[in-house]
Amino acid sequence: MLTLGPDDILLGRHADSWQTALDSAAEALVDAGLVEAEYRDGLHDREAQSSTFLGNAIAIPHGTPESRRHVKQTGVRVLQFPQGIEWHDGQQVHVLVTIAAQNDEHLDILRQLTHVLDRDGVAEQLASASSAADVARLLSKPTLEPRLDADTLCVNFPARDPQELALASAARLRQSGCVDNAFIAAVAAAQPTWLGKGLWLASSSQGVNQPALGVATPASHTLESAGHPVHALFCLAAHGDAHRPLLEQLMALLDSGASDTLLTCNSAQLLSLLAGETASTPTRRVRVLNPHGLHARPAKQLVQVARAQAMAINVRLEEGSATLVSAASLTKVIGLGARRGQWLVLSAEGDNARQALESVAETIEAGLGEKITPLDGGFDTAPEASTTQPAVEPLAADTPHTGVAASPGLAIAPVFVIRPMQFDYPEHADDAEQQLIRLNHAIKEGAAQLEALVRNAQGGEVADILSMHEEMLVDPELHHAASDAIREGRSAEAGWWEAIETAAHAQEMLADRLLAERAADLRDVGRRVLGVLCDVTLPEPPDHPYILVMDDIGPSDVARLDTSRVRGLLTVRGGATAHSAILARALGIPAVVGAGQAVMALNNASMMILDGDRGRVTSQPSEERLQRAEQQLLDHQQREAAAWETRFEVAQTRDGHRVEVAANLGNTAHAVDAVERGAEGVGLLRTEFLFMAHASAPDLTTQIGEYRQAVEALGGRPLVARTLDVGGDKPLPYWPVPQEDNPFLGLRGIRLALTQPDVLETQLRALLMASKDHPLRIMLPMIKDIAEFRAVKVIYDRLLQEIPASQRATDVQLGVMIEVPSSALLAPSLAAEVDFFSVGTNDLTQYTLAIDRGHPELSAQADGLHPAVLRLIQMTVAAAHSQGKWVGVCGELASDAVAIPVLVGLGVDELSVSARQIPLVKARLREFDFADAQAIAQLALSQATSDEVRDALEAR
To answer: Average pLDDT over the chain, rounded to whole?
Structure first.
């Protein structure tokens, strides 16, 4: 809500140009402590994109998404220019409502100001206002608009009389925030009034927060009371004269004679009737795909197209409102507050109405001048399983095809393709109670299946994710959404899938890629229940080894895998952080994901070579290619066996150059397994696992207990623990951060930790105390320069003084991760003060090359052997060694057999890899001399691209 105080409004300003006025506005935000000075550039950049002039002499300057990092606190400053300013689009402006927005708050402020645009004389009043109070009064939003939308409806309620319908409707109004308990008490104390034609009315003005009209229809089509039929009850929350538009809609319905049709209406149909749309009214549904919904720029485009039509075009939110507004009114269109993914209903009357509606709809679908991306399923909400997919060409024979490398290893086997299950079911059903019984039974059966899969799951990660599926299955929001759809006339199958798809779409719209990819888990849960309802089961896999090909592999699919026969996994969709990839790595199955629709056209039993290291698959390989791959696989298996036998030997090159090999751990419980596999320490303990496992930040005692488990398992080997690395792409529910356009460049890692230094201090204290009498290395993530390190060092040094040496680690070091290019470029200044460096090649690569390593199309190019990345590593090692400090590498590059000699040749002192890779990495070190490694490193540095690096190294 836009609330303005005296300090928010600056009167009597003067400016010679709009640029000067904008600079004054920026200065006002800086003086208020809302933004940093750099936000000024964001205001000018926004105007360069399009004018922020709103109307009635008001402009609403706000920054670009890129400038949000300069916003300290969301706020507004209003500047009055009595003499006016000519804005850059030729409009006269008297008031700047200048916004400092950390997210999209400016859209809410914009909607709150739309009422001003319809009032005559406001421009002159704003120009002549002599007090801040007058300006605030002119800009403040008037009485709340009356409400009639999907949230005020109660369809097919199992009531026995009109009074029960009245109470049900009143309860919906309370849930919507329109009324309080006083209203419900007043409705309960009075009998509903018979209006005629099967319609009843209950009303009160007590306890009304917002005027609203609730509508309730009975489940029984034969319900009567006092000899009168009961088709629908209207529950009116009256408030002065503000509810009059609701009465007008009610009177129009009475006059239409359509009351008898209300009994068979679902929510959408009921809203359509209340909006005045009849069966003969031409309408067109269209979905909003704009990233930020119908804000000012796309709304202007819509209004221009609507005004160009030969008749009046009306529009409303399908799922939100029964109120039609003119599509030719900018204020009305903006006031809809339409968000991405919501459906609009366009309507018109007259000759060629359908042609006009189609023209407007096509403009909306094209994005209204903005770049858009379709939601999953394009412009239709039908379940993916019931749509007909266009034919795709199969992969070319004996030709490598690139996807996303998800789990390392080489697989050679015929493919077994499981195509999406086909669910045939009716969309509608007239026996709501029976449909609810069917759905509840299917959900219970799905839960029982999941419980069995959890019990038999191979690996803790699989069980953990399946347990999450169990939680999804009992989510009350899913149940309520499905039940509401069923009571509105949908079948159990259609109601359930609609609820799943709605939730999945909402998940996919999140900025956080990790959370967005959990939409696949929701659909996996949804298909399980749908399979029970439709009695559809998966085909039986062959009894010989195979490579499994699917659209996407969910946790429940993985749990059913016979790992003795599945040689590899290949999927159409997914990224490196999807659960299908995580689970494949957990089970040690080579996998390539995000390979595209062409893989679904593969013929069962056709031979394939799958390279999980490079993210490549080759269908129907030639005999020569197949023999090479089989020999490569045989050599690899022999190397694995030999490496396992020598896993406890000291890690060093053939000529004795020492390189420590340590384990990357995501959980302290895995430390014992790492030691058993030959780990010489832990090079990366991701401590966020502990924070993500708790509903609130774990206390000191809890953290000490967890860290001590790993320390003791290591038996004197060093532990490198990374401090909490969350925020941005890895949020904690109890540590919320503002939504960010690019979370990978936002508030995460040490940046976030320093906003709550008490949490960081507790973690540092716990690590020091848990590691008493053991070697400890503490590593800080996402350090960009020495200032951030020094901020943590102050806390660290104080703790060393506060905690007696007898109660904490004394063999302790404080280092930083090199994952931001600036830290590598500034390595000399960092090396003078830190104790060690650990290069996180995953993030360093994506930040250096500007490629999201989870991107389905570009991730194959995010190669840590790119010479730009190697030069940054070289600079880091040189700076560290000049100060007598050591350098580790803890990214995926450290286990790449081709990259290992390059890293050693660059002077890296430690390689930290997944526990499964430790024996092989140690064995790889014993295959070359240090001098050879140095020559290989120089060869790699002399190349121009990562492909050239790999080609040169393979040819050597």
So the answer is: 82
pLDDT in tens, 556-572: 566 566 777 899 999 88
Q: Is residue 623 within 8 Å of 872, Cβ to Cβ?
A: no
Q: What's 823-842 look like in SS3?
A: HHHCHHHHHCCCCEEEECHH
Backbone angles phi, psi at 93, to 5 degrees: -120, 130
Overall average pLDDT of the 174-188 stretch: 84
Closest CA to 406 of 586, 591, 579, 610: 591
In this prediction, residue 380 carries a pLDDT of 35
Identify the band that residue 394 occupies on the pLDDT scale cut at 50, 70 and 90: confident
The neighbour count for residue 507, using CB atoms within 10 Å, is 18
Phi, psi of 894 (to 5 degrees): -65, -20
389 pLDDT more than 50? no
For residue 555, what are the CA distances in angstroms to 116, 183, 528, 578, 597? 53, 48, 11, 10, 21
SS3 label, residue 556: helix
Helix (H, G, I), strand (E, B) or coil at 923: helix
Indicate whether this model's pTM tops 0.85.
Answer: no
- How far apart, in whole angstroms, are the C-alpha atoms of residue 851 and residue 476? 39
pLDDT digits (tens, 9 = 90+) for 776-810: 999 999 999 999 999 999 999 999 999 999 999 99
The length of the chain, given as a count of residues: 956
Q: Give 711's contacts (C-beta < 8 A, 6+ positions apart).
A: 719, 770, 771, 774, 776
CA 867/CA 946 separation, integer angstroms: 6
**Do residues 617 and 405 lie in contact, with contact meaning Cβ atoms separated by under 8 Å?**
no
Which active-site residues does the annotation give? 62, 295, 579, 890
Residue 94 contacts residue 81 (beta carbons within 8 Å):
yes
Give me the residue label for tokens 């008001």. 58
Closest by CA position to 755, among listed 738, 730, 769: 738
For 262, other C-beta atoms within 10 Å of its C-beta total 21
Each residue of 522-562: pLDDT tens digit?
A: 777 888 888 888 888 767 778 899 999 988 776 556 656 67
Q: What angle do CA 308, 364, 337 make, to 5 degrees?
A: 100
Q: Which residues of 426-443 are buried (b: 16+ CB within 10 A; e: fewer)?
A: eeebeebeebbebbeebb
Contacts of 71 (CB under 8 A, 6+ apart): 34, 35, 39, 63, 100, 101, 102
Kind of pairing between the strands at 9-10 and 53-55 = unpaired
Beta strands in 749-857 (DSSP E): 776-780, 812-818, 836-839
Q: What is the pLDDT of residues 819-865, one digit of tens each?
A: 999 999 999 999 999 999 999 998 899 899 998 765 656 766 778 89
Positive or negative: CA dihedral 482, 486, 489, 494: positive
Whether residue 1 has pLDDT greater than 60: no
Radius of gyration of the chain, Cα coordinates, nearest whole angstrom: 32
CB of 920 closer than 8 Å to CB of 639: yes
What whole-number distance in Å separates Cα of residue 6 and Cα of residue 137? 11
Element (H, E) at 668: none
Give 157's strand partners: 218
Nearest 5°: the CA angle 18, 335, 287 is 110
**For residues 179 and 237, is the Cβ–Cβ distance under 8 A?**
yes
